[in-house]
Amino acid sequence: MTSTPWSAIGELARLVPTPHNTQPYRIRPTSDDTAELVLCCDRLLPDEDPGNAYVLCAFGLFEATLESAARAHGYEIEIEPIELLDGAALTRDSGRITVGRATLAVSSAPQDSTRAALLALRRTSRLPYHDRSIAPPFLAELARIATGFGHHLEVRSAPRTVATVLERNAVAIIDNLQDPREREEIRGWHRLGETPRTGDGLWQRPMNQPAWQLRAAFAAPWLFALEPVKTLAIRRFLRTQRGTRHVAVIGGPFATWSEQRAAGRMLFELWMRMAAADIYMQPFGSMLTNPHHARWVADTLGVAQPWLVLRLGYSDRPPAAPRLASIVLS
Description:
- With 330 residues, this protein is α+β, with helices and mostly antiparallel strands.
- The chain folds into two domains: 5-120, NADH Oxidase (3-Layer(aba) Sandwich), CATH 3.40.109.10; 123-313, NADH Oxidase (3-Layer(aba) Sandwich).
- It has helices spanning 5-13, 53-72, 114-121, 136-148, 159-177, 180-187, 204-207, 211-219, 221-224, 229-239, 257-276, 286-289, 291-301; strands at 25-29, 34-40, 75-81, 96-106, 152-156, 190-191, 202-203, 246-251, 280-283, 306-313.
- The strands form three sheets. A four-stranded antiparallel β-sheet has the order 1-2-4-3, with helices on one face.
- Strand 1 (25-29) and strand 2 form a beta hairpin.
- Helix 1 (5-13) crosses helix 2.
- It is globular and about 60 Å long.
- The model has no long low-confidence stretch (mean pLDDT 95).
């Protein structure tokens, strides 16, 4: 394919985080300065992600990433998402759907590579965290970012609460493995072996889990629901969560296409600010895609409309998850 500005922009935009590293969004150029933004529905997770809410939220992340990538190459980008999209109606057989259009214009401002650098620094860390608290003013800044998008971010730092949330997340993972449809859906995105430079899915090293445990979880999930194996598995998983001083809950509107996109843009801003401060986070998706555990989050942690739970803190530099070689369609 002839090189266009979209090639350079796509090289950065492919770094956008997506659920289970499925990377469902593509850029389809229609000219040197216009493109369609495409959702590849064969990469949806409709059983693990009811209503495809988190994949649609990832489009907000994609929008914000495209804007940063464009500025890094001296362009301004105008993105016009489609007006309506019913995530619950989408299946893995829905094909490729145009979910937005983008237009480039040469910027009069100097190229801004600051956020492009942060895109490369931003990672999910599933490693143990350093036993070190985040300064309260920084946590307050994260809360202000969320508030600016109409959401609320509440940090819990009491050791007992943190420990309870970490254990509850481990229980939610085991519970979700007992659902055969959800288990088989995510099985296809788990990868064993040496992490490649390019690719997709969740590889064992970035996941910080041994290959035998991942194999066993999918081969004999029922075993992990039985005592004493369940207790031992939870204890082993919690070793990867050592040093965690803070967990956070984000709540707010998350039901419609426009709300999900806005939530994704807010999450992008949080992630960029954290990357600039060398702070990592690990989202706990299993706690909120499971209705039982979602009710526990709302009731026990007292957060209205919760849609994301995460741990955050300092850690060693986590290994990079691979990305597709290109997200630009010919």
